[in-house]
Write a structure and sequence with these properties.
Elements (H helix, E strand, L loop, with lengths): L2 H17 L35 H10 L3 E10 L2 E12 L2 E8 L7 E7 L2 E6 L9 E4 L4 H8 L3 H11 E12 L2 E11 H7 L11 E8 L5 E8 L2 E8 L18
Antiparallel strand pairs: 1-2, 1-11, 2-3, 3-4, 4-5, 5-6, 7-8, 8-9, 9-10, 10-11
Helix pairs in contact: 1-3, 2-4, 4-5
Organism: Kribbella turkmenica
InterPro entries: LolA/LolB/LppX
Keywords: Signal
Length: 254
């Protein structure tokens, strides 16, 4: 396997584990998992409750107003942190910059930068220290499919096509912000088809995620649990000025 292919395979597997646990081919039921920040007791009587009809339009409208955000994610196995991801994403122009590390990478650190349709990957022990491999759209189909799942527009489109249920569970205060909590159930096969992805055999029929939305209907926390693996994603720093640029030519090995 060539260096770009090895790097792409490593990054694709990593991002896939973070973004699409529903693709795991085991017939088990998903259940909600709570975020790690301090949580106040649930409060009743929210100002506005979203439902199956209004949920996706509300999230899509909120997404349309975003230009950037900060991302933090953790993957835990039986309570032990196996993988952590931190970084930023922008929409205008489209860009992603994330750093990934943890036991799942055998102690290695991976860095991914995506600007437009070009991806730059650096994985310790795979690429030379401080260097990146440059990949263009279509060069590594597996990586292209994985990165497509991080596009909020694609995510919301697939959610609209696959949504089976929305349940409001109450109001919580997380990190001093009042949030409305929802459990969202999606049809896994329909979600994958809407993203243009293959549907492996043996998938669970549905997946349930827990989302905490702020007053602008922006997701602040997303969590789920699957086969003893818990994922917690935190979004913050909305519309904070961020500039994501490619590595300098001197840092690119291909």
């Amino acid at each position: 396997m060539t260096l770009p292919s090895r790097v792409a395979a490593s990054a694709a597997a990593l991002v896939l584990a973070l973004i699409t646990p529903a693709c795991a081919a085991e017939k088990q039921t998903f259940s909600a998992a709570g975020p790690t920040p301090s949580v106040a007791p649930l409060e009743a009587n929210p100002v506005v409750q979203l439902n199956r009809k209004t949920f996706v339009p509300a999230l899509s409208a909120a997404q349309a107003k975003l230009t950037s955000w900060q991302l933090n994610a953790k993957m835990m196995l039986n309570g032990t942190v196996m993988l952590e991801m931190t970084g930023s994403q922008t929409t205008r122009p489209a860009g992603t910059s994330v750093r990934m590390t943890g036991r799942e990478l055998d102690g290695r650190t991976a860095r991914l930068i995506k600007v437009g349709k070009t991806v730059y990957l650096s994985v310790s022990g795979v690429t030379p220290a401080g260097k990146y491999v440059k990949l263009r759209a279509g060069q590594e189909p597996e990586l292209d499919q994985t990165l497509a799942r991080t596009d909020p527009t694609t995510i919301f489109t697939s959610l609209g096509a696959s949504l089976r249920g929305v349940e409001y569970t109450g109001r919580q205060v997380l990190d001093s912000v009042k949030l409305e909590c929802y459990e969202v159930t999606v049809d896994v096969a329909k979600a994958l088809k809407a993203q243009g992805q293959p549907v492996p055999k043996g998938l669970p029929r549905t997946a349930t995620y827990t989302l905490w939305l702020d007053s602008a209907h922006r997701p602040r926390y997303i969590s789920f649990e699957y086969a003893k693996v818990t994922m917690i994603v935190t979004l913050s720093g909305f519309n904070t000025p961020v500039r994501i640029t490619p590595p300098p030519a001197s840092k690119i090995v291909r």
